[in-house]
Every structure is written in C-alpha cells, then in structure tokens.
Amino acid sequence: MRALFAVGLVILVLGILSFFVPVPHTERHGIDAGDVHLGVKTHHDDLLPPGVSVALLVVGAGLMIAGRKSGN
Questions:
Q1: DSSP 8-state secondary structure symbol assigned to residue 71
Q2: Cβ-contact 62, 41 below 8 angstroms
Q3: What is the pLDDT of residue 37?
Q4: What backbone torsions phi and psi does residue 52 show, to the nearest 5 degrees?
Q5: For the chain, how long is the longest CA-to-CA vector?
Q6: Confidence band, pLDDT 50/70/90 cuts, at residue 1
Q7: Is the Cβ–Cβ distance between 26 and 43 less than 8 Å?
Q8: CA dist., res. 2 & res. 9, Å (int)
Q9: pTM score, two decimals?
C-alpha cells in the first residue's frame, strides 16, 4: 500500500465520519475585572458544513486513485 493511498483512505474516512459525528465547540462570554470573573460558558456540538464533508470525500478519493495509479 502506497503512502498516498493510505493518506487518501484516512481523509476519505474522516469525510464520511464528518457527516455523522459532531465537533464540540465551547465559547466563554463574560467580563474580567481584576479578580472578578463574570461570565457564561456555552457548549455546542455542531456538524461540519456539508460542503467541507463533500470536499474531504473528493480529496480522499482523488488521493486514493492517484496512489493506486502511481503504484503500477
């Protein structure tokens, strides 16, 4: 298995997972005044935009095809 094929396979799997697995994101909103900290932490689990997921799939498949052709 060529390295390019392996990298393409990993990117392809990440592209497939990005449709189903949310990415955690934490934000902190507040005010710091000396030793006083007033704020709120918010936590979101968002999916990647579909365009990014499709781009990962296309790039992964392209690298797999390029890695397979260079191995012949």
A1: T
A2: no
A3: 86
A4: -70, -40
A5: 66
A6: low
A7: yes
A8: 11
A9: 0.71
